[in-house]
Design a protein that fits this description.
Layout lengths: L1 H6 L6 E7 L21 H13 L4 E6 L8 H10 L3 E6 L6 H10 L3 E6 L12 H14 L3 E8 L8 H11 L3 E6 L12 H13 L8 H8 L14 E4 L4 E3 L8 E4 L5 H9 L11 H7 L26
Amino acid sequence: MLAKAALSTSHPILAHIIPMRRCNLACEYCNEYDDFSKPVPLAVMRQRVEQLAALGTSVVTISGGEPLLHPELDDIVASIRGTGMIAGMITNGYLLVAERIERLNRAGLEWLQISIDNVNPDEVSKKSLKVLDRKLQLLAEHADFHVNINSVVGGGVRYPQDALTIGRRALELGFSSTIGIIHDGSGQLQPLNPEEKQVYDEMQGMAKSGFTRVRGFQNNIARGKPNDWRCRAGARYLYICEEGLVHYCSQQRGYPGIALAAYTREDIRREYRTAKTCAPNCTVSCVHQVSVVDAWRAPQRPATPLGSGTGGLVQIE
């Protein structure tokens, strides 16, 4: 995958694809869900997967909403694997049972991430270790795929020390453990207070390294420092919403706002060269991860209007 990424910049490395915007939870800080949307039909999802494969995408992460609510999720995973792309998923974990995990094994899922926000549920988040620990045990017993547990610090998290408890439990079960920093509604920086910084540093020390972590970006964010980098969203990273439109990321939806079915390598080349004004204070780590591959080449330039529309970023609540 890295060799392919180094040889050519005209293909996506990672795409997030949304088959289901509805979620069974309503975490206070989250703006990536609703409580009414229907699942995207399987035939449509297969078309989108095939288009990503045609663009040369390496990794497809299924996200939401809550993807496990989609009645044909296993078929979507199998479609991704059938093209040779790597298949991952981000879930809140509530709907996992042994039989469901075995089905994901058979579909070919290669990695799964669950974000756990606290030890005990509160009004901000129900994604707690108390509720999900049995689900983690089931994953340890049945999953053939890699599991990563992501805990968070930052705005709205009442007890920062919970992240350490969650991280230790993840490692105890044989999973990897990462930590993220909660961003605001446009994916921007929320500097950590002294207690949060201490927890963040301890988590960095105990976490396993891997493709899910780019420490330099997050270290600066934790200390309230902007990052000087070249964001390759819209090119090396694509966010495809439930309507099939390509966006920079989950927090900057609306631009470029082109249907995936019409997205071309020329769009990729344009967005690869386009500087994003939100980049210095961005906390969206998946975009950091793929952009670092090209940190050494191709300087960027300011955004220009696309067609008859206006340039810049539009965030849709």
